Amino acid sequence: MSVQEFRNWRSIREEVLRRIEAREWEPGDVIPREVALADEFNCARATVNRALRSLSDEGILERRRKAGTRVAELPTRRATLDISILRLEIEAQGQHYGHQLLAQDHETALPPDLEALAGVPVPHNLLHLRSLHLADGVPYALEERWINLETAREAEAMDFREISPNEWLVNHVPYTACDFTFSAMAADPVVARSLKARSGQPLFRIDRTTRQRGALVTAVCQIFPPGYRLRTGVA
Amino acid sequence: MSVQEFRNWRSIREEVLRRIEAREWEPGDVIPREVALADEFNCARATVNRALRSLSDEGILERRRKAGTRVAELPTRRATLDISILRLEIEAQGQHYGHQLLAQDHETALPPDLEALAGVPVPHNLLHLRSLHLADGVPYALEERWINLETAREAEAMDFREISPNEWLVNHVPYTACDFTFSAMAADPVVARSLKARSGQPLFRIDRTTRQRGALVTAVCQIFPPGYRLRTGVA
DNA sequence: CAGTGGTCTAGACCACAGG
DNA sequence: CTGTGGTCTAGACCACTGG
Fold first, then answer.
1. Which residues lie closer than 8 Å to B16 by C-beta, 6 or more apart?
2. Measured between alpha carbons, how far is A49 from A37 in angstroms, rounded to an integer?
């Protein structure tokens, strides 16, 4: 083999991938330790570390102290979903975004499945909003949202006909952790009417709960019209 | 404020998050540059870099050369889905995994939606498999799979009644990139019978195409019984 | 207890993009 | 052109864990 130059961690990463694809290193094999690779590639160990860590983050390698680094046998496909704000998703498709507030009231509990997803105690003081996202005037998603008024008091005074609750929250409660659930459901008559679907049609649904420091911030259920598909980028 | 010790990149990361949550740094704000933070935290710049990079990877910060680092305004929620092998998913729930090969033949094209998802030229020499994954004997998912025989010739000789095609592929074609699509569909009579669902019921569906070096390796469509939910970890 | 990856440091140079 | 993040280096110590 010709002498190759490895200048940076990306090229090392590529070379490691190449060896795995070429089955020079097979699933389950322990690969040479960092020092050895650093020596082979004629670079600092930190650089090799950077490359191997990135592969380990993606589940392609498994690393353990003392045990060394091995090629994952049954790699978990780690798909990253970029869940953006619906407005951005719609505008990215070159469509005009619209938002329509259908209902607003106070509730004292979440629906059971969202409560289970939340995994944290849910207060009894919730602002409940039902709204519709539109793309070029056509229903794009029906959204049902609960906002914890103890975490986000100012939400009560907001007029969510102007700004969508999601965008307001994102800018008001900056950093949050969230859990998602994806599922299929049948359109009930109410939902069907909002989304211009027929009752009983299969709809794609995303549930989400958002927390900050262990306290619920908001819970959302978004329902999409028939035919909607959620796509991911690469693992 | 009391003098705090910042020993490692994780603690710096936490402190940065704290400042964002506390709105000391608001969405859109430029935060101090790495050298300044390294100075404040009394550590090397590389350590600050490590902390900020991890936040930037998650979409919480946005970094650009010369422009500096700022708190993301409309952060994209980056959910990571761990799509494991169904056998592992089932066994992780303490259930017994079973696999049943329903049909096997040759086809010359993918269904249109999978072909669109693939994004690479699809050869006309495909092995097609239809199989059922069982958890404790109950249908867990119906799987329809196409394998590119030009990439994975040996697949033709395999007996997929013994080992599931997915597991064989994973060990045979180690590293691959893949794209997913999630959607809802109505059970047609055939699918309904396999999954013991009623015709027309909403089903959750995952489509996936897998590539290696730009060549299609396999395309899969997995359909789950009513009530199935896909959950994610945190962003 | 010893070997491996995990991390930190201090310094350097580079690449990119803002002004 | 200049300031910022991106990366590399050489060396060091630490933490975990397998044997």
1. B25, B31, B51, B52, B55, B61
2. 10
Give the nearest partner residue to B174 out of A27, A181, A235, using CB atoms. A27
Exposure on the CB side of residue B38, measured as CA atoms within 13 A: 11
For residue B173, name the pLDDT band (cuts at 50, 70, 90): confident
Query: Is-same-fold flag (A3-71; A79-234)?
Result: no
Q: Per the CB < 8 Å rule, is A73 touching B171?
A: yes
Q: Give yes or no for residue B1 having a pLDDT over 50.
A: no
Question: A3-71 sits in which CATH class?
Answer: mainly alpha
Position B76 pLDDT exceeds 80: no
Interface of B with A in 119-148 (CB under 8 A): none
Q: Indicate the class that CATH gives domain B79-234.
A: alpha beta
* Residue B19 neighbours by CB under 8 Å, 6+ apart: B25
- Inform me whether the C-beta atom of residue B16 falls under 8 Å from chain A C-beta atoms: no
| pLDDT band, very low/low/confident/very high, at B141 (cuts 50, 70, 90) | very high
- Closest nt to residue A66, judged CA to C1': C4
- Predicted local confidence at residue B214, as pLDDT: 82
Nucleotide nearest to B50 (CA to C1'): C7
> Domains of chain A: which residue ranges?
3-71, 79-234
CA dist., res. B159 & res. A208, Å (int)? 41
Put simply, whether B77 touches A (Cβ < 8 Å) is yes
A126-135 and B138-148 as β-strands: parallel, antiparallel, unpaired? unpaired
